[in-house]
Amino acid sequence: NAGVTQTPKFQVLKTGQSMTLQCAQDMNHNSMYWYRQDPGMGLRLIYYSASEGTTDKGEVPNGYNVSRLNKREFSLRLESAAPSQTSVYFCASTGRVGYTFGSGTRLTVV
Amino acid sequence: LAKTTQPISMDSYEGQEVNITCSHNNIATNDYITWYQQFPSQGPRFIIQGYKTKVTNEVASLFIPADRKSSTLSLPRVSLSDTAVYYCLVGGYNTDKLIFGTGTRLQVFP
């Protein structure tokens, strides 16, 4: 019963580097989401995908791109990382009742 | 999407009942109210969801008045392990993108 799996758990990037955060769910959920959480703050929606093949912007999409590769996987890409993107990133999916979140990726951009 | 307002923080002692109220004055007819709990360094965890009146599960109760412009999460006999941030969210049944506020930081003392 893995639920939502995120990789990596930790990452340090230099300014300007790129990387992709991976997310996979094994609950056959249609909708998936990427949030970021800055220290002491609530979660802010970056992008979401209501179903396979569709994606939409959330509150803070600038500097990010996403791919809904299939029903299970939803990846988040930073093309040119900036220090302002230092945050904890959470992936989530929704099923019958409520969201299920992954354990997060702690990203530091130096 | 309906905006929510909840207290920034609350303190309690072990064994007490804690009630956290959330205001959502512009809730839409088809919106549900959902509460999540988040421990440090973890993703939020679904607690309870309701549409009207009262909902109870093994963890909490959710009270929603007839006008649905507010809701109250009730945690019976809290313990130290209930120290966490609690988020109130309003949106469509599971499929809408949910907007998190800053939540209510509950501190339980021995």
Give the SSE layout.
The complex is a heterodimer of chains A (110) and B (110).
Chain A: E1 4-7, E2 10-13, E3 19-25, E4 31-37, E5 43-49, E6 56-57, E7 64-68, E8 74-78, E9 87-94, E10 99-101, E11 105-109
Chain B: E1 9-13, E2 18-23, E3 32-38, E4 45-50, E5 53-56, E6 61-64, E7 70-75, E8 84-91, E9 104-109
Parallel strand pairs in B: 1-9
Antiparallel strand pairs in B: 2-7, 3-4, 3-8, 5-6, 6-7, 8-9
Outline of this structure?
The complex is a heterodimer of chains A (110) and B (110). Chain A is an all-beta fold and 110 residues long.
Provide a descriptive summary of the structure in words.
Chain A is mainly β. In chain A, 0% of the residues lie in helices and 52% in strands. Chain A has no helices and eleven strands. In chain A, a hairpin with a 4-residue loop joins β9 and β10. The radius of gyration of chain A is 13 Å and the shape is globular. Chain B starts with 8 loop residues before the first strand and ends with a strand. In chain B, β5 and β6 (61-64) form a beta hairpin. Chain B is built from no helices and nine strands. In chain B, 0% of the residues lie in helices and 47% in strands. In chain B, the strands form two sheets. A five-stranded mixed beta sheet of chain B has the order 1-9-8-3-4, with no helix packed on it. A four-stranded antiparallel beta sheet of chain B has the order 2-7-6-5, with no helix packed on it. The interface between A and B is medium-sized, with 29 and 19 residues.
